[in-house]
Specification:
about 180 residues, alpha+beta, Beta Polymerase, domain 2, five-stranded mixed beta sheet, 5 strands, about 20% strand, globular
């Protein structure tokens, strides 16, 4: 069997997020934005891939400035990768870029539906440990059943994640 695709919740994940956030914050000073830790690593107790998911939340019309600042930090804009309203960035590893924990970086305009889904899911899961446990168990089972095949893992959890997201959006205060 390959090394595990997912691992049990790691108490270091919040500090990994803070390290990445602080580096980005230094470059974005003066621009209207917030930086959110989203995804499974943002949920205490959740089994997850050890990769920090980050959404930079921006005001409409500020994307070109944000993109330019991120480029100066060594990020390459990858486009929306098929998800409209969510712009993806990849860190270019060039030897001069300081080491950062593994992460996915996205930029979304405030009020964007993809952003609302991320935040609603995170907040719902933080408040409902029974759903966190159910999804964590499924993740472990899928990794074992499919020998850590990444695509089979993603496909296998998609229905439960969609169901939880729908439930989270119904219960979210999106005001």
């Amino acid at each position: 069997m390959k090394p595990n695709l997912v691992e049990e919740y790691n108490t270091a994940w919040p500090s990994w997020f803070e390290q990445i956030r602080d580096r980005i914050e230094d470059q974005l000073q003066g621009l209207p934005h917030t930086i959110e830790h989203v995804g499974s690593t943002a949920i205490p107790g959740m089994t997850a891939k050890p990769v920090i998911d980050i959404d930079i939340v921006i005001d409409p019309g500020t994307f070109p400035e944000i993109r330019d600042c991120l480029r100066k930090l060594g990020y390459r804009h990858q486009g929306d990768l098929g998800i409209i309203g969510r712009e993806a960035f990849d860190l270019i590893e060039d030897g001069e870029t300081p080491w950062l924990p593994p992460h996915h970086l996205y930029v979304c305009e405030r009020g964007n539906h993809e952003l609302q889904k991320h935040l609603a899911f995170r907040d719902f899961m933080r408040q409902h440990p029974e759903w966190c446990q159910k999804l964590s168990e499924l993740k472990r089972l899928l990794c074992e059943e499919y020998d850590n095949d990444r695509q089979a893992y993603i496909d296998g959890k998609a229905t439960l994640v969609a169901d939880i997201t729908e439930l989270a959006l119904m219960n979210a205060d999106l005001g």
